[in-house]
Amino acid sequence: MRSVRIGVDTGGTFTDVVVVDEQTGEITTTKTPSTPANPADGFMEGVRKVLRKAARSRGGGSGPQDVGPEDVGMEAVSAVVHGTTVATNQLLEDRIADLGFVTTEGFEFVLEIARQSVPDGYGNSYFWVKPPRIVPVHRIRTVGGRLDHTGAEVRPFDEEQAVAAARWFRERGIIAIGVCFLHSYANPAHEVRMREVIEREHPDAVVSISSDVLREYREYERSVTTLVDAAVKPTMRRYIANLAERLEVVGRAVEAAGRAEVTGRPEKAAAAHATGSAEEAAASGTTGSAEEPAAVGAGGTAAEPAAAGAGGSGRLPFSVMKSNGGVLSAAEVVHQPITTVLSGPAAGALGAALIAATAGHPSVITLDGGGTSTDVAVVVDGEPSLTTEGSIGRYPCKIPMIDIVTVGAGGGSIAWISPEGTLKVGPRSAGADPGPLCYGRGGTEVTVTDAHVFLGRVPPHLLGGEIPLDAEAARHGIEALAGKLGLTPERTATGILEISAFNQSNAIRQITVKRGLDVRDFPMVAFGGSGPLLVCRLIDILGLPSVIVPPDPGNVSAFGLLTVDVKNDYVRTFVTRDLSPEAAAEIFGDLEEQAAAALDREGFPAEAHVYARSADLRYYGQAYEVRVPAPAGPPDEAWRAEVLDRFHIEHHKLYGYGYRDDPRHGVEWVNLRVSGIGPITRPAVARRPHGTGRPEPAGFREVCYDGWGRAPVHRRADLSAGARIDGPAVVEEYGSTLPVHPGFTATMDEFGNLEVRRA
Fold first, then answer.
1. How far is the C-alpha of 168 from the C-alpha of 462, rounded, in Å?
2. What is the pLDDT of residues 157-182, one digit of tens each?
3. What pTM did the predictor assign?
């Protein structure tokens, strides 16, 4: 039976969808406008659209009229994987309300004190005002009881104060509550009892406890991370419940149609499909609630591993991308929603890593250019760099996440004039609605996309003609801005793109030079709808050896969703200068038991479980740690020496010095970590046949690079492996455009990637 997997990445402007045929490896991609008011609408429309396109490609049809609803192929879907920005957007837009906090008696000002760091350095300290805390002081309750740093109880848990705190939140209608007690990373007993009290006294509440979210020391970061988890939990539960319900309705309709066909009544099957469509439309209003976790389980259960099909249960296995580079079933992810805050960008980095490694580039910079922002990351030896020092907006989040730097330099970034009279670009964006001037939806400000359209570097339409662009509106906007600046329209448009390119290059320097890496050692993979547009300038600015533009670059993040293993991270703080093999074995054993239980719930057999160990170490007296991988197997003295050696090497690489042979500087162990991984079968990247090295262009268009000139326009779908295009030229495809500047070449490799270099 035919089997396909679907990846859906919801962005600020477009929802990108990819289908991979598990038998043939055939990949089908599409895009549809995002629906910010209800992202689930764009999600479902994207799923329907890509399945229709896949059905047409199999059947040879040419349009939607060739495919009826019974031919869409939902019965063949074995899994749906989703990258979402719901949690990210809530944090970036500061939509946090009615959040409560419970902490140890005497520590009610832990959020107010925070850290001594000041944005933009101490030169700003006279003018900077602390932003409002994630929970104001008047919504913080304290509870008596105390543990020491080893987890031993100093004072017993105060049940009476706990009950009073729970009732206080209930009386004020506060349903999202975070709990963080001092030293609960060493012993979660008091936090567990607090959660039990809240569940008994305030059953409508959604509770996050720090020993579940981040079992790691540093009270401020642990408190904020726990509160962020609690803040996004109701929103994520409603969203995931909504999607799971709609997917379940489709699954039930497919199952009903299958039963009708077995009984020999095809007219009933068609009716079942039609009914499913109606039910699915009705389900679009389903929002679920924080009190209905059972609805979330519609996305899959422990008995439904990723390979399970929809038949027989009416359910489609449904997973969500996590920030750490893994996925988790919808039924599980709602219990740890903070892990999804970099869902989409993480998938893009992983998809680009697989594409680059297949083409022979194991270490690359990845650049994901969208409508609102650009996300950059570094991949070393096939693995994106991870960090636990990330933040979303102004909130530190110490969960493991792919190390991504985001800058407000997307296609929708707005060009504006500062009070000093200079041209600026971003970070403010026109978004998807109203969008750039050329969208014709009421936008009033010039954007990066308008500059590309004015200069002829982007065709007068998007998505193969589905979205026509108003080039005249872009021209009028550029001319008006040029008049204010006293420049020609061409200089103004080129200046907008130059500033945007430097904004992107600064983000790349943050992820390379500031991490001790030489940017000139790494080719770059550029993807996303706007990712390839400025690659020639980035090669010049940064000295990059080359830039790789994958096929369907606008859908790389959605493709990346289908390359990701199931992954959960577990951590335990254990500060010591002399870690014994017995203590290491006990802690790693406990963490691996937790990882095994989670993988069992995800449906992976024990023999398929993979455990990746790591440790955070520092020189005694330092405030921050360096993470290094730890070998598998029973810890012994040789194991301990290997980890210490890796620490000295990594510290020297990061900071340029180390104390390997200096007995005055001992090494301190801080955190031990385990990642539990359930491997999947990754889609294969198909090879392209070789063809003509000098392809004929599909047409010509006036394009402005150094000046206006007639440039050849190539259709990427017409190119074969070995094709070489010399600039000036433009390469167009369904979801993106690659301008090839004078003095550059773009060569297609055997996997369909265009490699751009200086001629």
1. 54
2. 999 999 999 999 999 999 999 999 99
3. 0.80
